[in-house]
Structures are given as C-alpha cells and as structure tokens.
Amino acid sequence: MSSPRPTQSKTAREIRDIIDALEFDDVASYFEQDDDEIDPYVVCDGVSVGAFNRYIGDGEGLRFALRFLQLSDDGRILIVDLSTTVHESTVQCFEFEFLTATGNGRLVKIGGSTTVSRVGLPKKEADDTYGPLRSTPNRTRPPRPRIIADWVTLAVEVGRAQTWASLETAAQWWCGYAGIQYILLLKVSRPGTQITYRLYEINIPQCLPPPSATGIIRRRNRPRPADSVTFNMRRILSIPANQPLPNGLNRMLLWTYESSWSKSSIPFNKLRIVDESRDKP
C-alpha cells in the first residue's frame, strides 16, 4: 500500500535544483544494466501533484523529458527510462509505418510527445500521439474539454528499460483522457530484436479494459494470423459512420508480421491494410 503524500511538498524550484544536480552519466549507467526490466531511478520524494506540475510547466527545457518521468502515488519523482537509439528508433519506425499504411498520412495529426494534463493528476507525455487535424474532413468536434491541439485518439508508450508496471501506469493515466480511443504499449528488448506489445481499445472512459491484442514480434518471425493489431481510422480521426472517409484514406489498418527490418534492426513489421475498401462519396 502506498504511503500518504507529505503535507509539506518540495517546491518546483527545489525539484529543479535536485534534478539539475543529478549526474547524467550516473543515471545513464543505472539504466545500462543487462536487463529488460529495470526499476525506476528515484530522484526524490515529498512531491505533490501541484509542485510536480509547476516544475513540468509546458514540458520544454527539462533536464529529463516528461515522457521519461513519473510521479508515484506516494510522492516520489521517478525516472522510468532514458532516450536511447533503440527506444527512439522504435518510435520513429512505428510512426513511419503507421502514417504510410493510412493511405493519406496528411490527414492525421502527429502530436509527438505533447505535454497534456488531467485535473488533479500529474502532467503526461507519451512517446508519440495521433489524432484528427483541424482540417480533417468530416470529423466531429473535440470532446470537452479537448481542443484540436490536445486531442489525442491514439497514444503510444514505448519502454526499453521501463518496466511493464510503469507502462501500465501510463495506460491507466491515458484511459481517463477525454477522446482517447487506443493505447499501444511497446516493450522493446535491449538489442532491439524483440518487441512485446499490448493494445487497449477504450470504449468506457476511465476504465482500462484487458488488452484487445497482445503479442511478441521477434526477428525473422513468420506471420501468425492470430497475432495482429488492428486500428479503425474512423476512431482515430473521429469520423462518424454516417460520414464518408476522405479520399485515399484506408478504413482499417492491420499490423502484421512480415520481415521488415530497419537499418537500426528494430523488428518493426509493416502496418498493412486489412480492408482496402473506401467509403463512396
């Protein structure tokens, strides 16, 4: 059971001083352990949600990006992962394959690691986010209190050293974010030769269901039809069933297991089209 938060929190300035005093090489060395699950690096304790959010601000200029930080229930600031070639290549490979598979990536907003918030909770960044653009044809209005800028329908969280428990904490945060439709957790092995994934489809706000798809992608895996991740572009772009899809946009995407290796050896198999039919105008 988590201990109660302290009544007297560290200030945002105190948090900044503590983090700025960290030796980056020491933190990097901690995460270089020969393990795919490394416990978070504890920065400090005695931190309230308000103080943490004031320290984070708009997410710019932080010593460690918000996507690598978590505030625990008992008021500890944790570094859960660091930026590495394997980590960043995984994010970039997914983004490229996803946008290519849509048929018209210009209709999809790439939010990247935009800083977002929920009332009463620590601020959050995913590794990558997607959603409708202001110019996306036939979309609905953003759900309250969202605006176009912070409207996220797909959040992607990538962990290299990050534990599954920490990734699932991130999924719990996202499931209560107004407008979210999909949460994809990707856990990549240290050499980048294996990715374990869990996809959550959010149908009831604030309720994280069991994953709708789970699996492991390994190098040179042969395709297995039962193991796949499907995305409905109507949900990602918030286009109702009674409205036509824009020209060139594929309705359903399937992440299949085909040998498709990037130069960085990330085992990212291409997102393929499940149903090539497009709604008639």
How would you sum up this structure, described in words?
21% of the residues lie in helices and 21% in strands. Mean pLDDT is 88; it is low at 258-264. It has 6 helices and 12 strands. The chain has 2 domains: 12-79, no CATH class; 85-275, no CATH class. It is of the alpha+beta class. It has helices at 12-20, 24-30, 49-56, 85-102, 164-175, 233-237; strands at 41-44, 69-71, 77-79, 108-110, 128-132, 154-159, 182-188, 194-201, 213-218, 229-232, 252-255, 271-275. The strands form 3 sheets. A 6-stranded mixed sheet has the order 4-5-6-7-8-9, sandwiched between helices. Helix 1 (12-20) crosses helix 3.
Structural class: alpha+beta
The end-to-end span amounts to 56 Å
The tally of helices reads: 6
Query: How much β-strand is present in the residues?
Result: 15-25%
Quaternary: single chain
Please bin the fraction of helical residues. 10-25%
Q: Using only CA atoms, what is the Rg?
A: 19 Å
Q: Spell out the helices and strands N to C.
A: HHEHEEHEEEHEEEEHEE
How would the global form be characterised?
globular
Flag low-confidence runs.
258-264
* Number of E-state strands: 12
Count of the domains: 2
Strand order of the largest sheet: 4-5-6-7-8-9
Major sheet description: 6 strands, mixed
Mean pLDDT: 88
